[in-house]
Amino acid sequence: MHAIGVDIGGTKIAVGVVDEAGAILAKVRRETEPDDVADIDRAIADACRELAKEYEVGAIGLAAAGFVSPDRRSVLFAPNIAWREYPLAERIESLLDLDVPVVVENDANAAGWAEFRYGAGREATDMLMLTVGTGLGGAVVVDRELVRGKWGVAAEVGHMRVVPGGHYCGCGHEGCWEQYASGTALVRDARHAAVAQPGRATRLLDLAGGEPSGITGPHVTQAAQEGDPLAVELLATLGRWIGEGAASVAALLDPELFVIGGGVGAAGDLLLSPVRRAYEAQLSALGHRPVAHIELAEHGNEAGIVGAADLARR
């Protein structure tokens, strides 16, 4: 059975028809306004109608960045879109002429499920996906089942506190893991370094047009791949934060595999090597237990579409 997966971002949505092997058969995009939820609803419905004209569809999955209700129908809260106790599935169903179920999934859960079913985790039984982007998203699979929690908001690993009194987080607290283990943290630290140590940041500043405020994550990755010492150091710091936090998660869940997704994955071993070193350095009982594998995600930006579609069939 084909299903439609919808990956809802702050300013755009990506919508695709996915077959039972996890392949995207067709895809469309729409621009949206994050503060206009009705506009987002219309864009989703319009894209789904367009794809449903060409393909027979049995379910629609919506991947939303926010807390999703346990019945997979509503978004309870979203940090970047104006959803508050919002009945998203019901609104989409009311705009569609299709007699198919519509379900809502957390976007990190959807991406993690895509990796578990069709990507880096397809041989695993217990897996943790870490999506390292603007924030730090998580998805937990235990004994081949996605863990949503009693109220649907499990695996918000980015908001585990790792530094009491640390950097302020958009969730309203301080010192959350995502303030140190995210693409946003990498850029913040790179820009600070360029101001504090301009002599060491010449390559980063060249790539950014001479302004520290212009430095981006891809600039750091490119400079590190060229061998720039500061950029390599910045990625190693990010990797250390990811690896140390993963060791804490392992104390609770004991997964066999960690999958690292998000844009920083482009750094490859420049990121993975320090992640693995930090993980082992902080893993309890090292030498007396198996050590989880840590691998890069395989599905990239399409993971949300694939995972949402597959979960909608379940």
Structure explained in plain terms:
With 314 residues, the chain is an alpha/beta fold. It is built from 9 helices and 13 strands. It has helices at 37-52, 88-95, 107-118, 183-196, 202-207, 217-225, 229-253, 269-282, 303-312; strands at 2-8, 12-18, 24-31, 57-64, 67-68, 75-77, 84-86, 102-106, 127-132, 136-142, 145-146, 257-261, 293-296. A 5-stranded mixed beta sheet has the order 3-2-1-4-8. The protein has a 5-stranded mixed beta sheet with strand order 11-10-9-12-13, with helices on both faces. It has a 3-stranded antiparallel beta sheet with strand order 5-6-7, with no helix packed on it. Helix 3 (107-118) crosses helix 9 (303-312) and helix 4 runs antiparallel to helix 7 (229-253). The longest helix is centred in the C-terminal third of the chain and has 25 residues, at 229-253. The chain is globular. 46% of the residues are buried.
Summary tags:
single chain, 314 residues, alpha/beta, five-stranded mixed sheet, 9 helices, 21% strand, globular
| Unreliable sequence segments | none
The largest sheet is: 5 strands, mixed
Q: What helical percentage do the residues reach?
A: 25-40%
- Taking Cα atoms only, what radius of gyration do you get, to the nearest Å? 20 Å
Number of helices: 9
Measured by DSSP, the beta-strand proportion falls in: 15-25%
Overall body shape? globular
Order of helices and strands: EEEHEEEEHEHEEEHHHHEHEH
Largest beta sheet: what is the strand line-up? 3-2-1-4-8
Structural class: alpha/beta
